[in-house]
Amino acid sequence: MYTPSKNxxxxxxxxNVSVEEFKEVLIRSTLGERRPVEESTRLSKMLxxxxxxxxxxxxxxxxGISRSLTDxxxxxxxxxxxxxxxxxxxxxxxxxxxxxxxxAPQAKLILLAAPDAIPYYPKIGMEQYEFCYFLDNVNDLDx
Length: 143
Description:
CATH superfamily: Gcn5-related N-acetyltransferase (GNAT)
Distance between the termini: 49 Å
Number of domains: 1
Oligomer: single chain
CATH topology: Aminopeptidase
């Protein structure tokens, strides 16, 4: 557990975040616009198969989350970084990234930025990489 002295936000690594609180913080952060928030089964799997979850809580309420997949040696894919809009611009996202990186210090931290967040990451010291590819539908491989 890490609690900075200047506020009451408590940071932890967790493996028991509920689907409902995950859904709510996604919605309150606007990341819910790009996540399957109406599909509880998918959200449950997203939590179950993530192997590194760092949370920010204010008096127990989930107000930020970093959900990652990592091998703890070479790469960490930070799949979701969500901070409740009411708590943004206080350094919570940066702290979630810092604590995620500290859990796997040798691994390169990788993420895909939400469109509105693209200007944020260079400001906090992350380097942009030009090449990224994704595949949503396996049938697209045949095109």
